[in-house]
Design a protein that fits this description.
By secondary structure, the chain is of the alpha/beta class. Helix content is about 30%, strand content about 25%. Helix 2 crosses helix 7.
Length: about 425
């Protein structure tokens, strides 16, 4: 028997679907994601669907590692190296915005603060002609600062590098020579070889911010699959809905930023086709994020540029609207109001109802208290929820809100009626 396997590794659960090419049957399984070693969660879920990894003929997966790092602001510590005199391009950003009349709009806090932005002399004109040579001493000074202050990634964005990248290429050579492979170096023309300095810089910063997380994960997955006898390449979903091998994804981690949610979009395209629906709205709620996308005229809605958590990205990607409000998103009281996310309880300790030491309430906890999930048949029966501990965690938020003069009732836990034929 041979299997075609698709897997989604989220911040809370790892899900797998295996298709038996001989019998034409499908198997689905779920296991908690293991943040300490993601490969453990991968093989836990894979082992519930496929007994022999050597029988896998095709393996593709989507991952939210980069996206979750962005949403929860748990990415790399990045130093941004700009052309002399252009230090504030990333922080000034754009004066215009889509939600001009939204009184509650908040400009995204830059992933790199101004202190972590350095400059290097040298200049090209708009045609790529060198006006002043690159100040290599300034680049080496930036490298020494990276080592001294513990930065784990460097993003380089020089003026007009999309026309002539020689200065960025030389800066990259110096940084890699000084820092080795321990620090990720991102050149803006590699990520987005297009005009518009802010958007190109933003794309490079996003690549540097999420890249180390994605690289470590993909390297570990490939290593463990080789140990387990998997004889086929590991394929990864791209943000545009396509598939690339893991080695390409390690070199271009930003291409996988929306890898996990895009899998849901492509599934929506297939479902819409089966239902003879040319247009559809796709909703994917995971443990960390809530994602919405469109199917238009039977195809995913793809753009050559977009945004990720408010930051512009100059790469082909499915137009996904993502917010940090998933099942594991933490609830808390702030200024007398109830807030949810973007920080997530993740898989460890997870929501309070998992019984793994979590004490703060999440969306999943609320659904368990309201009886919207079956505590005895959670995750296909692989987990039993500890509903008894939920009232304590939810009451903690309720007391804070009551102190601010706001009240809401806390319902008693209820158990839904479960059909014996119901699935996970």
């Amino acid at each position: 028997m041979t299997y075609r396997v698709a897997m989604d590794i989220g911040g809370t659960f790892t899900d797998v679907v295996a298709y038996d090419e001989t019998r034409g049957t499908y198997f689905a399984a779920k296991a908690p994601t293991t943040p300490g070693d993601l490969a453990e969660g991968v093989f836990d879920s894979l082992g519930r669907a496929v007994s022999d990894p050597g029988a896998i003929s095709f393996f593709v997966h989507g991952t939210t590692q980069g996206l979750n790092a962005l949403l929860e602001r748990k990415g790399a510590k990045v130093l941004l190296l700009m052309s002399e005199g252009m230090r504030d391009v990333y922080h000034i950003a754009r004066g215009n915005r889509d939600r001009m009349f939204d009184l509650h709009y908040r400009k995204p806090v830059p992933l790199v603060d101004r202190y972590s932005t350095a400059e290097a002399g040298g200049r090209l004109d708009w045609r790529g002609t060198e006006l002043r040579p690159l100040d290599e001493d300034a680049v080496r000074t930036a490298a020494r600062r990276v080592r001294a202050e513990g930065y784990t990634a460097v993003a380089v964005s020089f003026l007009f590098s999309y026309v002539e990248p020689r200065h960025e290429l030389r800066a990259g050579e110096i940084l890699r020579e000084e820092l080795g492979d321990e620090v990720m170096v991102v050149l803006s023309h590699d990520v987005a070889g297009e005009w518009r300095e802010y958007e190109r810089t933003s794309s490079a910063v996003l690549d540097a911010y999420t890249g180390p997380v994605v690289r470590r994960y993909l390297g570990r997955i490939e290593e463990r699959f080789t140990e387990r006898g998997l004889g086929v390449p590991v394929q990864v979903m791209q943000s545009s809905g396509g598939v690339v091998n893991a080695s390409f994804a390690r070199s271009h981690p930003l291409q996988t930023l929306l890898s996990g949610p895009v899998g849901g979009t492509m599934g929506g395209v297939a479902a819409a086709d089966l239902l003879s629906r040319r247009n559809a709205i796709c909703v994917d709620m995971g443990g960390t994020s809530f994602d919405v996308s469109l199917v238009l005229d039977g195809r995913p809605d793809i753009s050559n540029e977009g945004t990720a958590d408010g930051f512009p990205v100059l790469i082909p990607l499915v137009n996904l609207h993502t917010i940090g409000a998933g099942g594991g998103s933490l609830a808390y009281a702030e200024a007398g109001g109830l807030r949810v996310g973007p920080e997530s309880a993740g898989a460890v300790p997870g929501p309070a109802c998992y019984g793994r030491g979590g004490t703060l309430p999440t969306v999943t906890d609320a659904n368990a208290v309201l009886g919207r999930v079956d505590p005895d048949w959670f995750a296909g029966g692989h987990m039993t929820l500890d509903v008894g501990s939920l009232c304590t965690s939810i009451a903690r938020v309720r007391r804070v809100r009551r102190a601010a003069g706001r009240h809401w009732p806390v319902p008693r836990p209820s158990r839904p009626r479960r059909s014996r034929t119901s699935g996970p």
